[in-house]
Amino acid sequence: MKATTAWFWAIFTLFFTRGLLFATWSTRGPEIRDALNLDLQAMGWYAACLSVGSVTGVLISERIVEKIGSRRYSILSYVILGGALVLLGLNLAWENTPMSFLVTALLGLPLGMADYDNNLEASNINRESAKNRVPMLHGGYSVGVLLGSALVGVAITAGLGITPDFISIGLIVIALSVLVSFAIGKNNGKV
């Protein structure tokens, strides 16, 4: 397996879309708090839901990737990730607090899943490359966070509410991630 340019940019894009989505969710925190009428303590519990989901995602990943491979696992995790952000946006419009807590845990799950798989692929790219590629791949996440935060600022300035923002970013993440996942080797990650 040779580290191809398409494979590298696919993983870079996956890191990027994860950063974009995370920044969109986290930057809108005050609006989430207001939409759900949460006090500071409840907001802490709400944020913990994302962490619980994320840790669970990391813990379940190894065996699943070994069975279905990184390409399918990327598609699965990013479709759930983008879909969860869309669903969270809808729940915030409906002001459904219990469901929003649950959906936020669901949002964390594929964040952890994707993190595991992206880092597995980054390690494999690094092994097949003449130079260290991991920092640039992780830089994709940072670029995503930067752009996501900037886009939230633009959206707020333009008067775009949290629900259409979450829906549009969720759909962009799904489309872009599924498209680039096909550049991952069919048998990557399988044992």
Shape: globular
The low-confidence runs, each spanning 5 or more residues with pLDDT under 50, are: none
Annotation field: number of helices: 6
Structural class: mainly alpha
Give the ordered list of helices and strands.
HHHHHH
How would you name the oligomeric state of the polypeptide chains in this document? single chain
Please summarize the sheet with the most strands. Answer: none
Estimate percent helicity. over 70%
**In percent terms, what proportion of residues is strand?**
under 5%
Whole-number average pLDDT? Answer: 95
Using only C-alpha atoms, the radius of gyration works out to 17 Å
Q: How many strand segments?
A: 0
Straight-line distance between termini: 15 Å
Please give a structural write-up.
With 191 residues, the protein is mostly helical. The chain has 6 helices and no strands. Helix 3 packs across helix 6. The mean pLDDT is 95.
How is this structure best summarized?
The chain has 191 residues and is an all-alpha fold.
List its salient traits.
mainly alpha; 85% helix; 191 residues; 6 helices
List the SSEs and their pairings.
Elements: H1 5-27, H2 29-36, H3 40-94, H4 97-128, H5 134-157, H6 162-181
